[in-house]
Amino acid sequence: MANRRPVKKLDTTIVNRIAAGEVVKRPANALKEMLENSLDAEASLIQVVVKDGGMKLLQIQDNGFGIAKDDLSVVCERFTTSKLETFDDLKSICTYGFRGEALSSISHIAHVTIVTKTDDERCGYKVSYADGKMKGIPVPCGVNRGTQITVENMFYNVPTRHRMLKNFNEEFSRIRDVVARYAIHNANVGFSLKKYGRDDVHVKTLANSTCVDNIRSIYGNVIARDLMEAKETDETLQLKFHILSTSLDYHAPQLTFLLFINHRLVDAEGLRKELDLLYGLYLPVGTHPFIYISLEMAPENVDVNVHPTKHSVFYLHEEAINKKIRLTIQQLILGKQGTRNFSVQV
Ligand code: ADP
Ligand code: MG
C-alpha cells in the first residue's frame, strides 16, 4: 500500500492529457473530429492522407473558410471554440463542434501542424503545436484558402495506448469507415482518402453527387441497385427522415448500419438491434441488410452533450421515433410503399 500523501491539484498539462485520452481513443476518432471541423468550415472538398493507420501521419486538407491568423494562438487550447458562447446556444447548435476540445486533445497526444488561409488575409500561415500551445509564431506561406491539419506520431507520449494500437490495417479500416460514412451523408462535398505515398484511392466521391451515387462508389453496385427509399416528415414527432435500405434480394454476413441524427454520425444500439431483428424475420438465418438513416429533429429534442466523442446522443420520443422507422422499413420490405430502384444507367 502506498503511503498517504498530500492532496495536490494536478498540473494542467496532465489534466488535459487525461481528458485527451477520452476524446481521442484511436486515430479514427481524431479524424472524425477533424472532418467535422472541415464540414463546419463549409468545405466542399476534403482530402485525407494516412500513414501507418494514422499512427504515423493523419493529414486532412479542406477548402473551407480557414482560421484567422489571430485565432491560431488559441485554437489548440482546451475549451476554445468559435461555435458556442452561452450554455443556451447548445439548444440550437447546428455545428458539429461546440466543446472546443478536439484540437486541444489531439495536440496533447500528437504533434500538430496547421497551415491555413482565410479570404481576409493576403497569405496563409503555418504553425506547429505541442500540449495545446503554439511552438513559435505563425510563419507566412503561399497557400490556397482552406486548412490543412497534419497530425504526426499519435500517442508518442502515451506508451500504453501506443502499444495497443499496433494493427495498422485495423486502424486504417476504421478511418476508411468514418470517411466513407461522412462522404455518403455529405453528398455535396467531395471526399478522398489515400495512403501516404500511394496512388490508389480508398474513398473517392465528387462534390454534388447523390447519396446513392456515393453508396455505389463506396459499397458497390450490388447494394446500390437494391436500395429502397423512404423520405417523410412527421409533424407530431417533429421528425424528418430519409431511409435507404436494401430489399430482401440483398443479404450479407454483416449488418451495415449508417445512422445520422441531425447530421451527426451516431450509434443508437436500440434502433440498430430493432432493425436487424426486423430484417431477421425475412432474411436467411445469419444474414443482414445495409441500412442508411438520416434523422432530423428539432435541435432542442436532441442532447448531443452526452459524451466527449459525441458518439451517442439522447433524443426525446426515442421509442415512438424508433417505432416509426421500424414500421416504415417494414412497409418498404413488404412492398407497401413507393420504392425506387437505383439500377445503374448504361
Ligand atoms: P470545436 O469544433 O468544438 O469548436 P475544435 O477543437 O474542434 O473545437 O476546434 C477549435 C476551433 O478551431 C473551432 O471552433 C474552429 O474555429 C477552428 N477550426 C478547427 N478546424 C478548422 C478548420 N478545418 N477550418 C476552420 N476552422 C477550424
Ligand atoms: Mg471540432
TrEMBL record:
Belongs to the DNA mismatch repair MutL/HexB family. It is found in: Nucleus. The chain holds residues 1 to 346 of 766 of the full protein. It comes from the Eukaryota. It comes from Gryllus longicercus. Residues 215-334 form the DNA mismatch repair protein S5 domain. This is DNA mismatch repair protein S5 domain-containing protein.
